[in-house]
Amino acid sequence: MAEHMSSDPNTGGRFGQLDDGDIYVVQDGKPGAPALLLIQNAAAPLACWDPFVPQLADAHRVIRVDLLGPGSPADPANRYDIRAQARRVGAMLDRLGVSQVIVVGHSSGCTVATALAEQRPGTVAGLALIDYGPTLAAKIPERPLFRLVLTQFPGRLLWRLRTDASVRKAVRTGFTRPLDIPDAFIEHALEMTHRDFVGAMRGPLNYLGQRSLPDRLTTLGIPLLVIFGADDQRWRSSLASAYQAVPGARVELLPGIGHTPMLEDPQTTGTLLLDFATAVGDPS
User: Fold this and answer.
1) What is the C-alpha to C-alpha distance for residues 52 and 30, in angstroms, rounded to an integer?
2) How far apart are CA 73 and CA 88, in angstroms?
3) Are 103 and 207 in contact (CB under 8 A)?
4) Are 110 and 130 in contact (CB under 8 A)?
5) For the chain, where are the E strands, in sequence order?
6) Residue 267 CB: number of other CB atoms within 10 A?
7) Cα separation of 165 and 121, whole Å?
8) Which among 10, 95, 262, 266 is least surrounded, fewest beta carbons within 10 Å?
9) 234-248: string of b/e by CB count within 10 Å (b at 16+)?
């Protein structure tokens, strides 16, 4: 893997070379420790995991990937398709020498995590899904302005007119607790192209619409933890119980928490993940 010239030498960031392009990878913790793979919504920055990475990295090799970063495929069929993204993540794990891993997905990253488990059930020792609906029925309708942004016109025009303030307002809908929005969220949104944003929104919904996540996971026999903010404004937390159709699944609702538990309550979220990793048996 070729080193990425990061402004922060402690981030552990590298560009991994794959057959169809590059993928940006950040690692924390010790290389020989049990592996945890964190996959976020492709429209969110890797920094969304920052508040609890130190807690996880004490005893784990924590791996984060940027699905739509520089070097990713230009072809939309491979760039936004969830199965294609999962295949690239699997190839990245091979390059890193990771044979078993607990995978954690947040928001639409849950679809990539699920697809990876479908493709590599022997590699994924456990799966944790954070705030993503089991079916399309759990989706809370988007606001009219957001739906307009997803169109070619006037969506592309609206995207060009976005500002720091408008992005900050949109990001804030993911939180229930009053929090300062990390600058990394704003910078990421301002740098993202309209095409990537639309692809990041539509690809996961297409995957979910083809087959529900519980239905996909039921036959895999992989331990499952579901963490859901009870006050999520993007997905109906009341329908998170549908995940209990997966044998042995554990569903945790966090009172007073919105769509992003890693930022709103990193301590509780990190503890739940560490407890889950222990129960799974910490793959090596």
Assistant:
1) 16
2) 10
3) no
4) yes
5) 2-3, 13-18, 21-28, 35-39, 61-66, 101-106, 124-130, 224-229, 250-254
6) 10
7) 43
8) 10
9) bbbbeebebbeebee
Element (H or E) spanning 199, and its range?
Answer: helix 194-210
For 58, residues 6+ apart whose C-beta sits below 8 A from its C-beta are: 29
More confident residue, 15 or 3: 15
How many CB atoms are closer than 10 A to CB 179?
14
Residue 177's domain comprises 2-280
Rounded CA separation 64/72 (Å): 15
Closest CA to 111 of 73, 149, 84: 84
Number of H helices, E strands in the chain: 12, 9
CB count within 10 Å of CB 195 equals: 15
**What per-residue confidence (pLDDT) applies to 12?**
60
The per-residue pLDDT for 4 is: 33
pLDDT at 105: 98
CB 239 within 8 A of CB 142: no
Establish whether the linkage from the previous residue to 154 is cis, with ω within 30° of 0. yes
Q: Which residue has the higher pLDDT, 282 or 65?
A: 65
Question: What is the domain-level CATH number for residue 199?
Answer: 3.40.50.1820
Q: At what angle do helices 82-96 and 109-119 cross, to 10 degrees?
A: 70
How many structural domains compose the chain? 1
pLDDT recorded at residue 180: 85
In the three-class reduction of DSSP (H, G, I as helix; E, B as strand; rest coil), residue 264 is classed as helix
Of residues 273, 214, 211, the one with CA closest to residue 241: 214
User: Token digits for 234?
Assistant: 């993007």
pLDDT of residue 138: 98
